[in-house]
Amino acid sequence: MTTTPAPAGVLRTAYQKAVADYWNNEKDPVNLRLGDVDGLYHHHYGIGDYDPSVLEGPQETRDERIIAELHRLESAQADVLLDHLGPIAPGRRLLDAGCGRGGTSIMANARFGCQVDGISISQSQVDFAGGQAAKRGVDDKVRYHFANMLDTGFPTGAFQGIWNNESTMYVDLFELFAEHARQLAYGGRYVTITGCYNDVTGGRSKAVSRIDEHYTCNIHPRSAYFKAMAANGLVPINVVDLTAATIPYWELRAQSSLATGVEDPFLTAYREGSFHYLLIAADRV
């Protein structure tokens, strides 16, 4: 694994440098092959029931059918997140915090017609995402930045909407929501979809700890999200438990050539109730 020196101030801790190194060097087929289906490259999971017919038919094309279906489910997840941003006028501005390879940013621009800024602490992700926006001819409105979501440098009140799609487990929530609240216009909307461990069952289960280890992340308890939002003027308007809706994605992924071994911990944690997949939408007040 190689390390590329970052501009001063973006990567502030040894942990952030380690996370950036991980994503700079990540070339997991489960992210790239799914994105190759239609050029929307995501770094999140899927929701909804899969079409069982993809498991039938000719064996030689079975994996292609599964990959296309997994990608449909992950794009459906992004659509649900964008649904919860509410109406966004074309003149407004959105922030994709922890944008990965940029798929959700491009979907947001296509839906709302507005400017979207995506940020990542992985320079390779930023470069890749920027290339995809240029290929689609939307790089005048969809821009990606090498930046830290805890201290972006963007102006106060600049955004009508901000989201984190499975990226909050890499940062302190109180710091994150303080920065998001600063950047959101009054009445602006914040949305996150995230995995969080269940406070009711105690600390991290063995399965949740395995997920942490796999992704070099630090999964938060469910209660921490609401405490950190309350401390920073973010008032939840919708909370949706997507746990049951994401299990089919993991069941299908476990049957694909792209399985990484983390499928079993996810399925175990969801089924035993130690891990939840939540959507939280909150207004800036």
Descriptive terms for the model:
SAM-dependent_MTases_sf, disordered N terminus, magnesium ion binding, transferase, single chain, Rossmann fold, alpha/beta, EC 2.1.1.255, S-adenosyl-L-methionine binding, 285 residues, 19% strand, globular
Please provide a written account of the structure.
The protein is α/β, with parallel strands linked by helices and 285 residues long. It has a single domain (14-284), classed as Vaccinia Virus protein VP39 (Rossmann fold), CATH 3.40.50.150. The chain is built from ten helices and seven strands. It has helices spanning 14-25, 29-35, 62-83, 103-112, 123-135, 173-183, 206-215, 222-230, 243-253, 263-272; strands at residues 93-97, 115-120, 142-146, 159-165, 184-197, 234-241, 275-284. A seven-stranded mixed beta sheet has the order 3-2-1-4-5-7-6, with helices on both faces. Helix 9 packs antiparallel against helix 10. The relative contact order is 0.15. Residues 1-7 have low confidence and may be disordered.
